[in-house]
Specification:
The chain has helices at 61-68, 108-113, 123-139, 155-168, 185-201, 213-219, 250-269, and strands spanning 6-10, 20-30, 37-46, 50-55, 76-81, 84-85, 93-96, 173-177, 205-209, 222-227, 232-239. It has 283 residues and is of the alpha/beta class. Strands 1-11-10-4-9-8-7 form a seven-stranded mixed beta sheet, with helices on both faces. Strands 3-2-5-6 form a four-stranded antiparallel beta sheet, covered by helices on one side. Helix 4 (155-168) runs parallel beside helix 5. The longest helix is centred in the C-terminal third of the chain and has 20 residues, at 250-269. The relative contact order is 0.20. The structure holds adenosine-5'-triphosphate and magnesium ion.
Length: 283
């Protein structure tokens, strides 16, 4: 059977208005030294929405993520987080990168709680925060490893700690920049499934930067394709395939081919083709 796998819409990424956890309009950025960065970008991320940002190397995905997270100021445009202008990373956001970046002198529990600042909290708050860390570590399957040291962990376990650290902040929005790209294929697939599971349980939205089309299709509610120099968001697909998604399902294969051809076109011309009429979203 051929359920409609996805809908596509022309750029810019559709805004979800007041239900958005993050709303960016007219953003651009250029590094002072190189002039590289990204072109005008407007996008919104809805509450609990998983959005994947795909695109060729160097088009500005990580830079865009850093601006949206409040780590860099845009040259133009605005970012609003829960309706408020964002000037620095929001306490209800969290970041996960390709490297887990654990502190080697802290055990798993303290790494996962790092940044929650137990020391300066009243005892009751400290207990509640400890409970949050325990819950996050249990959710990523590391309850039995609280006392382990980073040097004793596999790469996948270290990324689980990084994910637990993010969850312990009880984020409204998790920013993740290629968090699984250093992992082997099986661990990676496990982490993709875990990510979808835990962010649903934590009611968090996600912006996931990835090079991997399959990763985007398996986890995303919406996929944005960034292309050009400087990069812009040129295409968007809403993925309506129910979870858990099967990498070999017909709907997944159809969407993969569609995205691949847009990526190929973008790398040849800088801009992917417009959607054909049968790819337009149904109304
Ligand atoms: N600190 C910096 N100073 C100057 N230029 C930079 C800096 N960081 C990145 N750039 C340049 O900005 C552009 C966008 O970089 P960015 O890292 O955002 O790309 P990307 O899409 O994330 O690439 P990749 O997929 O390889 O991670 C690139 O041309 C890069 O060389
Ligand atoms: Mg990058």
């Amino acid at each position: 059977m051929s359920a409609r796998p996805a809908t596509t819409a022309p750029a810019p990424a559709a805004a979800t208005g007041s239900s958005a956890v993050l709303d960016a309009a007219g953003l651009s950025f250029a590094y002072a030294r190189s002039g590289a960065g990204f072109g005008e970008v407007s996008l919104a991320i809805g509450r609990r929405e998983i959005v994947c940002l795909l695109g060729g190397s160097g088009c500005g995905k990580s830079t865009l993520l850093r601006v949206l997270a409040g780590l860099e100021a845009p040259a133009a445009g605005t970012v609003r987080f829960l309706g408020q202008p964002l000037a620095r990373p929001h306490p209800r956001s969290a970041l996960v990168f390709q490297q887990a970046s654990l502190l080697p002198w802290l055990n798993v529990f303290d790494n996962a709680g790092f940044g929650l600042d137990f020391k300066h909290q009243p005892a009751a708050d400290a207990a509640a925060r400890k409970a949050r860390v325990r819950e996050a570590l249990a959710a990523v399957g590391l309850a039995a490893h609280e006392r382990a040291w980073p040097a004793e962990l596999s790469g996948g376990q270290a990324q689980r700690v990084a994910l637990a650290r993010a969850l312990a902040r009880e984020p409204e929005l998790l920013f993740a920049d290629e968090p699984f790209s250093a992992l082997d294929a099986i661990t990676r697939a496990e982490m993709q499934a875990l990510l979808v599971d835990v962010v649903r349980r934590w009611h968090a939205a996600v912006l996931l930067v990835t090079h991997d089309i399959d990763e985007a299709i398996l986890v995303a509610d919406r996929i944005l394709l960034m292309a050009g120099r400087p990069g812009r968001i040129e295409r968007e697909w809403t993925v309506g395939i129910p979870h858990p998604r099967d990498a070999h399902a017909e709907a997944v294969t159809a969407l993969r081919l569609n995205i691949l051809s847009a990526l190929r076109e973008a790398s040849a011309t800088g801009v992917p083709p417009s959607p054909t009429p049968d790819e337009e979203p149904s109304t």
